[in-house]
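All the exercises in this workshop are built on plain-text protein records. A record pairs a protein's sequence with a compact description of its fold. Backbone structure tokens are a discrete shorthand for how the chain folds in space. Once this layout is familiar, the rest of the handout is easier to follow. As an example, a complete record with its sequence and its structure tokens follows.
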Amino acid sequence: MEDQPADSGDLTTGSEDDEAQAQPTGKAGRASASGPESVPETDAAPADSGDAEPAEEPVLVPHRPAGKALKIVAAVAALLFVAAGAFAGATAQQYLSDRALVHTKLDVARTATSAITTLWTYTPDDMESLPDRAQKYLGGDFAAQYRQYIDAIVAPNKQAQVSNSTQVLGAAIESIGPDRATALVYTNSVATSPVTKNIPSLRYLSYRLTLERRDSKWLITEMTPVTSLDLTPRL
């Protein structure tokens, strides 16, 4: 049997054709044939701002005038505020007035205490100048009356070497006004003299003083004895 030459147009052998026909044509095959599958990018590009949803526009509510109830509440609140302010002002004014009254009473009491102590405290050496020392506490006719009284007793008291000391035990305001006041002053008076062998003369005296305000100063214009208790020992 003679050998027949192979067909010049057939470059493949029969076995290669058989292998090509035997390969599967499923999904795997199609995938390999189509090339590698593209992998989606993980970082997506930001969406265009024009595609974003527009922000919600504010809803305009029509203005409504305040109701009657709200107006009443506002009026009541305003009245309460005014009333509270008036009450606070009245309270503060009363407080200041009370403080001023207390200050005035203290001023009168101090003046009365200093005046009585000065008027009835003396020694034989300074008795003649007593009216001048007491002048700053006295006013009106009483200043002249006191000077006349002291001038009348200077000579006999100097002769007897009388010394007198007066201590104020207490003072009370009986009445007070803008320019006039009355006060009660309680005193303990002790007098000594060589004539009586320096045995002290003890007297408890109280006076009612009338004071008037003159140029911001309180001056005694009247002095009336109220009580007198003599405790001098009798030999």
Observations:
- The helical segments are 14-22, 27-34, 68-119, 130-134, 140-159.
- The longest strand covers residues 163-176.
